[in-house]
Design goal:
Beta-lactamase, 5-stranded antiparallel β-sheet, alpha+beta
Length: about 675
């Protein structure tokens, strides 16, 4: 009986133990699953390590860098040669691909070794643990830090694949001398990218993280060489390399640079400042993300053009003068700003005169006025009188008297083409008032100029200020046939992992009519054409002998400003020169600075370029007619000079010039056959 009772008691105990064990196991599974689920919900730990932000020119060269004093350049695992990864894994964590964040066998072995030595002589941190430690940027040895490190290690393993963890580790580990990550280390020690590392170079670098202050070859080449031997032996033991490869690598001579790449903004500092400002204003990034976010900022800067612009300014403006300069160049088709100079000396003044200064543009505003006139029925042959004129207005009290340069006037009729080439102020004001003062403002806004415009008669002469970059954008729209563009400094921004977070917008809006834009462009070539000389010489006469191709342009001046802006279909640029405080420019030489800087830049920037790509190609809706440049009528065989001039089809002149016929001569009316094929068509 007692035996039966004992058996039942044991059975109940066994059943209770089984239930408790099952309950415990269930609770443990629930806890573990809940912990795993919580880890998944939390997601991967934030990458809090600052990374160097790099700025690239259009050719891929680095023009600037921002960092915290530590060089950190993130590159993908695909860009790192396999022997680099193999070297690191072999010496740091051979079981990396098989463990789940912790190598229990190594931990036990390390504990035994440390107890035996009565001190820490061996570590057992895996690559995952070291990566987690790197994310904290702290090396304190408190238990709370160690627990958090373990927690982060689990989060890494649960949320990332092994390849992602390895990539993060290779990009964050310290190699000494302020170099963090394999790319920064490769650049510092060898002056090359990590993708170019040989086995010998990689094995040398792999030995450094154990103790950068001990195993850096710049501190002790002997210890570094010994450590490299251990790395190669480890690689051989894991089968990553053959004994022969290890032997060759150990004998390969290595040459160390010991210098970080110099990524200071030595060229284009004003451009660099503008890019950083646009990262905030257009991309929407904060200061820390910009400085330490590991961004790759791809800009539109053309290094060659930038160098040409800086040299053109420095060699043109006398060192003895305080005159300043603002310069910008742009690709009219894309809006890409390819060069920018905000002043003569960035160290003395970081104020950007190309993007921040608002100055009176003078006659450089006239092309926008004459575009407006073309849209309202004017043509290059439209005639108005150039003579001293006082305009009196309907209020009976106000009046305005514009003056031409040096008070020179035709005292007769001139064409719009000649008025633009000679920069006749009376013609411009008459046109402006005829069109209505709101009309020019509308056109100015169409081409992206946002500065305040006063609706006054003198607006036609550029008395309302603009920024040089705005004027350049307006001229680029004329150059590209009337399509909207905006100044683009930043083409693309990528985060440290290569994900595109910003791309410059592309526009397809037609803001000016292409046929009128082309007619205006051709009119603007007139400032360099002596055929349009009249009561004065064309305004570009002083630089004609420096030209090797056709340009469209317009100069402008006020008492304290000198401007020159112009373009080919592929390149536009603008120059402003003057005193910062608006002091009057008095010397003739000083007044020529803008034109000389502009032509020197354009000629050098386009040297060697295919001339056909920079030729002005007329659209279908325009027609070329040879006209007498004085009266704008169709030129005949009797005209001593004619200029091939473009008109929107249907607006071309129909009257022939008779000013050069003798009294006894009468120009015969053209026959029907001749009308079909004019003499200039047979010649050209």
């Amino acid at each position: 009986m007692e035996a039966v009772m004992g058996s039942k008691k044991r059975w109940r105990t066994f059943r209770l133990f089984s239930v408790l064990s099952l309950l415990t196991a269930t609770i443990l599974i629930i806890v573990l699953f809940s912990f795993w689920l919580w880890i998944k919900i939390l997601g991967p730990p934030p990458l809090s390590i600052p990374q160097s932000t790099l700025y690239y020119a259009s050719d891929g060269s680095i023009i600037g860098e921002s960092n915290s004093g530590e060089k950190r350049y993130w590159i993908s695992l695909d860009e790192i040669p396999p022997h680099v990864s193999d070297a690191i894994i072999s010496i740091e964590d051979r079981t990396f691909y098989s463990h789940h964040g912790f190598d229990l066998k190594r931990i036990a072995g390390a504990m035994a070794a440390n107890v035996k030595a009565m001190g820490k002589v061996q570590g057992a941190s895996t690559i995952s643990q070291q990566y987690a430690r790197n994310l904290f940027l702290t090396l304190d040895k408190t238990w709370s830090r160690k627990l958090l490190e373990a927690f982060y290690t689990i989060r890494l393993e649960v949320n990332y694949g092994k390849e992602e963890i390895l990539e993060g580790y290779l990009n964050t580990i310290s190699f000494g001398h302020g170099a963090y990550g394999i790319e920064a280390a490769s650049q510092f020690y060898y002056g090359k990218s990590a993708k170019e590392l040989t086995l010998a170079e990689a094995s040398m670098l792999a030995g450094i993280p154990k103790g950068p202050g001990i195993y850096s070859p710049l501190i002790s080449e002997e210890k570094a060489k010994s450590r490299q031997g251990l790395v190669l032996s480890a690689m051989e033991a894991t089968g990553a390399i053959s004994p022969e490869e290890a032997k060759v690598a150990s004998r390969e001579p290595l040459f160390f640079i010991g210098k970080h790449p110099h990524h200071q903004a030595e060229i284009a500092p004003y451009f660099y400042d503008t890019v950083k400002k646009e990262l905030k204003d257009k991309v929407g990034l904060d200061d820390r993300s910009i400085a330490l976010g590991g961004l790759r900022v791809y800009t539109a800067l053309d290094v060659k053009q930038q160098d040409i612009a800086e040299k053109a300014i420095s060699e043109t403006i006398s060192e003895s003068t305080d005159i300043q300069a603002g310069f910008a160049a742009m690709d009219p088709e894309t809006g890409y700003v390819t060069a920018l100079v905000g002043g003569r000396n960035y160290k003395n003044s970081s104020f950007n005169r190309a993007t921040q200064a608002v100055r009176q543009p003078g006659s450089t505003i006239k092309p926008l006025l004459y575009y407006t006139a073309l849209e309202h029925g004017f043509t290059p042959s439209s005639i108005l009188k150039s003579e001293p004129t006082t305009f009196r207005f309907s209020d009976g009290q106000s009046e305005y008297t514009p003056h031409n340069y040096n008070n020179q006037y035709a005292n007769g009729e001139i064409t719009m083409a000649q008025a633009l080439a000679l920069s006749d102020n009376v013609y411009a004001v008459k046109t402006h008032l005829f069109l209505g003062q709101d009309t020019l403002v509308d056109t100015i806004r169409k081409v992206g100029i946002s500065t305040k415009m006063k609706k006054v008669p003198s607006l036609a002469l550029g008395t309302s200020g603009v920024k040089p970059i705005e004027l350049l954008n307006a001229y680029s729209i004329i150059a590209n046939g009337g399509k909207k563009v905006e100044p683009v400094f930043i083409v693309r921004v990528e985060d440290f992992r290569g994900k595109v977070i910003y791309e410059a917008p592309k526009f397809n809006e037609q803001v000016l009519k292409p046929e009128f834009a082309f007619v205006l462009s051709h009119m603007m070539t007139g400032m360099f054409d002596k055929k349009l000389n009249g009561y004065a010489t064309v305004t570009g006469a002083s630089v004609i002998n420096q030209m090797s191709r056709e340009y469209a342009g317009k100069s402008g001046s006020t008492n304290s400003d000198s401007w020159m802006a112009g373009f080919t279909p592929k390149l536009a640029s603008v120059v402003w020169t003057g005193y910062d405080k608006g002091k009057e420019i008095t010397l003739t030489e000083d007044k020529l600075y803008a034109k000389n800087i502009w032509i020197r830049f354009m000629e050098r920037a386009l040297e060697g370029e295919d001339e056909k790509e920079h030729e002005f190609s007329p659209p279908a809706k325009v027609v070329a007619i040879p006209v007498d440049p004085v009266n704008g009528k169709i030129a005949t065989n009797s005209c001593p000079v004619f200029r091939l001039t473009y008109f929107v089809r249907g607006t071309e002149p129909t009257e022939y010039c008779t000013d050069h016929l003798h009294d006894s001569q009468v120009e015969p009316a053209p026959s029907k056959k001749e009308k079909k094929k004019r003499w200039w068509q047979r010649i050209f």
